[in-house]
Amino acid sequence: MDEGLPPRRPGLSVRWKLTLSYAGFLLVAGVLLLLVVWIFLLRYVPNVPINASDGFVPNRTDLQRAFFPAAAATLGFLLVVGLLGGWILAGRMLTPLQRITGAARRVAAGQLSHRIRMGGRADEIRELSDVFDTMLDRVEDHVAEQQRFAANASHELRTPLAISQAILEVAQSDPDRDLRGDVDRLHAVNARSIALTEALLLLSRAGNAPARTERTDLSLLTEDAVETLVPFADERGLRVTIDTADAPVIGDPVLLMQMASNLVHNAIVHNCPGYGSITVSTSSGGGVSRLTVENTGPVVSAEQAATLTEPFQRGSERTRGGDISRSRDVSRGGDVSRGGDHAGVGLGLAIVSTIVRTHGGSLTLTPLVGGGLRVAVVLPSSP
Fold it and tell me: For residues 311 and 355, which has the higher predicted lDDT (pLDDT)?
């Protein structure tokens, strides 16, 4: 019995319940049949001696003496047939359920790869089996994704700790060392750790159903995101073009604002400094609202684009986190911070994908000819 569940009192098995039900229905049918015989036949027979020229003629009493023992024997036979036949039929009907129960127990024991795969023609039990297998497919994929995410997160969080440890070891081994540079580098490492932790928390929050939903205009959120990040784009010499039209949606404005900011920020970070461009547009129609962000940049293959929404993906290669040797190089003056932003920790598009999914929308990444990427978000439009 699972922990946390109240103990259950022992009771009849489903097989016995079905068996008794079959036998009970059979007995009721037999009694009704005998009552019909009694009501519509025997009561019309006179209960007085009947004289006939050709011999003895039984009256009602004589027929009752012959009828009731035979009726009792018939009911007894029906009871035996009902119990035996009900037991066999119930067993045949419950066999698929026993397979489902066995599969559920194996899954509860950790065998998420087990499937029922029940054959035969379609019926309610086989439909339940198919739904159970589909659920297991989703559970297995979700568990694998969570394990992969936990492993990547642990690896990524280990990096700033290893860098900090290397900086401290270098500072400890050289008492005459100027610690101001080490303090600055530790500050940068700490800022990166905070940014990564905040991104992980945001990704966890975005994976749940929005805490509050309200009607909002995606175009206004996008304009605010672009206005906030324009100075960052100007620093990199990028040209930003915005073309927004009303795009009403229903959702969490904070998460939707984060989604738009991440898309614009990602387009700025992965671009061509000095001459690149970014185009941001919103529109609505056909019952959906759209947000599209296009940017110039390095060439992205279709295979790479398909993996960019996975956590800890940066550009064309997976983040490797850095090892101790790299950390020691950094401690001697390398740049340890890629910016305190979600794109810098490889979670920008992962957060966007999660927010879009929890709002019932879709996210499409299309590589552009000559380099760059087009990211299109489609959300259900509000009435």
Answer: 355
